[in-house]
Each structure stands twice: as structure tokens, then as C-alpha cells.
Hints:
2 helices; alpha+beta; two-stranded antiparallel sheet; 154 residues; seven-stranded antiparallel beta sheet
Amino acid sequence: xxxxxxxxxxxxxxxxxxxxxxxxxxxxxxxxxxxxxxxxxxxxxxxxxxxxxxxxxxxxxxxxxxxxxxxxxxxxxxxxxxxxxxxxxxxxxxxxxxxxxxxxxxxxxxxxxxxxxxxxxxxxxxxxxxxxxxxxxxxxxxxxxxxxxxxxxx
Length: 154
């Protein structure tokens, strides 16, 4: 093979490699550009919860404040669910202590796209049940949000 033919083959191979890389990048970016709606956020959150429920339908979460593992019954997802920074999503939920439907925890879930679908990557206890003498059980917050960032209250 002549040197000019070898050069043409090498240049063609480099162009082919660039095209393959460009195509792979375009496919990855297309997956990132998937639009998710409120129902998608809720469905992904429900799917995550159901995958973590035991045979009796209880969801387990580690309480970082008390050190115990809580086993709670899913009640509902609050409206609205939210988009954060265009690429992260958020759902707030209620879970009840088994056999005590008024004793509610508020759990928060953060989601992000992965392989074209939403997946939960973080869960936290936002509010814990406290009992007031005058009105019964209420949800006491552990943190608040400032510019979509968690700020502990105590």
C-alpha cells in the first residue's frame, strides 16, 4: 500500500471514529432531553415505594435522627410535585405509622433521569409526628427549603 493510500485510510478511520463519538454523544443528550411530567414523577415515586415495601406493605426508612428503622404505610403523594434545576425532580409524601392513621410522617424523595426514566436517588424524613394536647397529631418539620436546598431547623 502506498503512503498516500495509508494516509487516506488513516484519515477515513479518524473521521469514522469522530462520527461514532458524535452519534454516541447525540444519543446520550437525547436521553437527557426526555421531558418528564407530574404523572411521570408520581409514577416513579410510587414504583420506588412499592419496590421497597415488604410483604405486609410497609416501607422501611432509616431515621438518621433517632437511629431506628421506621416501618410505615404509604398514604399519598402531595400535589404539586416539582422540577428542580431542570434535571432533578421532587415528590413529597405522607406515610402513616401502622394502625395509627393520624400519626403521619412526611417523607421527601428526590429523583433524576437515568436511562430515559426517573429514579429516586435520595429519601429523607421531612416531618415527624408530634402530639399536641389541643389538636392531636401534627407533622413537625426537621428542615425547610431555601432556593431548593435543604436547610435543617435543628
